[in-house]
Amino acid sequence: MMRNYFFFFIFLVLLSCKTEEQKPQPVFKTVFETSNGQQTATYEEVIEFYLKLAKNTPEINVQTIGETDSGKPLHLVTYNADGIFNFQKLGADKLVVLINNGIHPGESDGIDATMLLFRDLASNFLKGPKNIVVVTIPVYNVGGMLDRNSWTRANQNGPKAYGFRGNAQNYDLNRDFIKSDTKNASTFSTIFHLTQPDLFIDNHVSNGANYQYTLTHLFTQHNKLGGSLGTYLNEEMMPGLTEELGKANWDITPYVNVFNRPPETGFDQFLDHPRYSTGYTTLWNTLGMMVETHMLKPYKQRVLGTYQVLSSMLNIAARDRKKIKDLRNRALTNINAMKEYYLNWQIDTTKSKTIYFKGFKADTVISQVTGFERIKYDENIPIEKEVIYKNQYYPKDTVVIPAAYIIKKGWWRVKEHLEQNKIQFHLLDKDSTLLVESYRISDYNTSNRPYEGHYPHYGTLVNVSTKLMQFEKGDLVVPTNQKGIRYLLETLEPTATDSFFNWNFFDPILQQKEGFSPYVFEDEALKLLENDSLLRQKFSQKKMAEPQFEQNWYAQLDWLFKQSKYYESAHMQYPVFRIMRGSETENILSNYQSSKSN
What we know:
This protein is of the alpha/beta class. The protein has 3 domains: about 30-195 and about 215-335, 3-Layer(aba) Sandwich (Aminopeptidase), CATH 3.40.630.10; about 395-510 and about 570-595, no CATH class; about 520-560, no CATH class. The chain has helices spanning about 1-20, 30-35, 45-55, 110-120, 140-145, 185-195, 220-225, 225-245, 275-280, 300-320, 320-335, 410-420, 485-490, 520-530, 535-545, 545-550, 555-560, 585-595, and strands spanning about 60-65, 75-80, 95-100, 130-135, 200-205, 215-220, 250-255, 265-270, 285-295, 340-345, 355-365, 375-390, 395-400, 405, 425, 430-445, 455-470, 475-480, 575-580. The strands form 5 sheets. An 8-stranded mixed sheet has the order 1-2-4-3-5-9-6-7. Strands 15-18-14-19 form a 4-stranded antiparallel sheet, with no helix packed on it. Strand 1 and strand 2 form a beta hairpin. Helix 3 runs parallel beside helix 4 (about 110-120) and helix 14 (about 520-530) crosses helix 15. Residues about 1-25 have low confidence and may be disordered.
């Protein structure tokens, strides 16, 4: 009898285990799936999906961080197989992948693909790598996502409704990472420095031409990234992605950087300046890429393709985790040891390669609308051929890396941006006279049309001098030997493409505040010439060499005024100064810092 009870007990235990195994897991269907790939989720549906997922999955966490211009916060969703969501406690062996979605909410492919990715990680349908932490901003441009319509993406093949490119202030957020005019960009900086990703992926949709590919990739420019890290990106990670996708029967090609011309004529790699997401993130040696799907392809196909890219990149990250982390650490060490830094990268037209490209036959026909020539692609005639692809860049400018910068304390907007990006600096605690390298703006051009809330400068030139300068208590001393060295050089060197100067942060110095009345200054100008023979000689030579100057009485007086003590020193004087390595000033400030630390 006891034996029968024993076997009955074992049977109940086994039945219980089987019942537990067969217990249905929570099913989280996305709007994309329930609409058979025709629709994308609304903002509310996206957030609700992740909250439900986190409630039922201990490996997933949702938190709100910071503000956006819409008045709503940004969300941060994290998958970690260990269930640890404090980024300070992840451990050095963990590799962090940050995925950004909806920077342009009409390009919603990544929003839906990432929902599928996290759902599949949560359900173990997609095996999450143990040493990889996957983080996503589900919707970055919240204001644009809420501005939902079905017409502003005039050429796009689905979904049925989507968000708008501009944010709540109508900024294009993928031009705002340096100037940071929006609350979105400020919060992104917080998220970026909190998560400190090793790999950054930004999901987009594009169409500059018609071709067979659903998927294109836009990695950060490898020469600009530089060193072994740039070599790895170009020679291992990019080919590795192509290989991974090939195994899943997905073709991919470099981002087709053309507009209104057939791509088989050849194209160049797009250069991601620091204003763009991947240009910004790689200032901290984070490997960056954009997924660019082709918007003429069906929406379902684009989302599934994006999903495949994301899962393939996770495989690469898991495979190369130790190498990536080592290369990033070495990159920071190497750049802090460099004497010079390279700026303003240009395409190297002398270097190119051929890539195998799958396009469609393109004809030039007469437009029935305008009567002029237009391009017409014939999707019934696919073509495959080798095309010229140029992806080698060289730096137009080089600067010597200083030991530190000194920024006059009145420029509080710059201070805010440094704080936002976790840049280390200290304040002078007393008035000091220091020998520094000084820039005066000698020339610049300004856009004659507004661009993202600014009239940016370009082609900036400076005159360099070394001088003793008086600095005040509270002025900022910013050492370059820190994680943010590239950020400092790209923003504080005025000739850099996306410098704070070129983004109009220092425009007040370009306007002369005091001048002269000609009828009064005539007498003073005469005294200047009578009392200074060298000035008199330079004045005479300038008139002889420049006929226009000789014939312009006001230009002559203005020139003399600017040679005199009356001319204000602040005009065209760049208020950021350089402390050079090995200088007496560096030693003074180093000793000062050491004494404070002790």
